[in-house]
Amino acid sequence: MKPILPTLFLVCISTIALSQEYKASFGKYTGCLRAGGICTIETPPLSNNKAIYDNNLSFIRTEEGATILRVYRDKLTVEEHDRILGVPITSKNKNLLQFTMEEALPLSVEIKAVTSNKKSKQLAELEAKTYPTVITDNYIDITIVPVDTNVNSKDE
Known about the structure:
- By secondary structure, this protein is an alpha+beta fold.
- About 20% of the residues lie in helices and about 25% in strands.
- The chain has helices spanning about 5-20, 80-85, 110-115, and strands at about 20-25, 35-40, 55-60, 65-70, 100, 105, 125, 130, 135, 140-145.
- The strands form three sheets. The protein has a six-stranded antiparallel β-sheet with strand order 2-1-3-4-10-9. A two-stranded antiparallel sheet has the order 5-8.
- The radius of gyration is 17 Å and the shape is globular.
């Protein structure tokens, strides 16, 4: 019975580490000079009042080594909803839409660290390109670091 408690503790700690949320702003000229994609990713200030800072995305690392940028649709304004993918999301087009960064976005050291467990795969920036995207009713998952095909490899 005793080994269960340390295991439960480690699971809780890892869940907390992966549940850190951030605030992103999205471009298509409104308050952002970028043509499209993410304009900024901000770390929320340390505060007990979460209502002040409406976080709308998180980084999720999978067992396979991929990193997904999860955007919570219920935390987006109507304008952000349309700007994130360039067009409004509908039931007809949600399986066809892809997230595109039209300009590279440099990432802070703190955010770079959450993009991958492996230092060699950590991103210094979100490159200007189209990323694999999955859209559900609740969120938009953008794969920013692909699956690691050599999961057993050691970090460089």
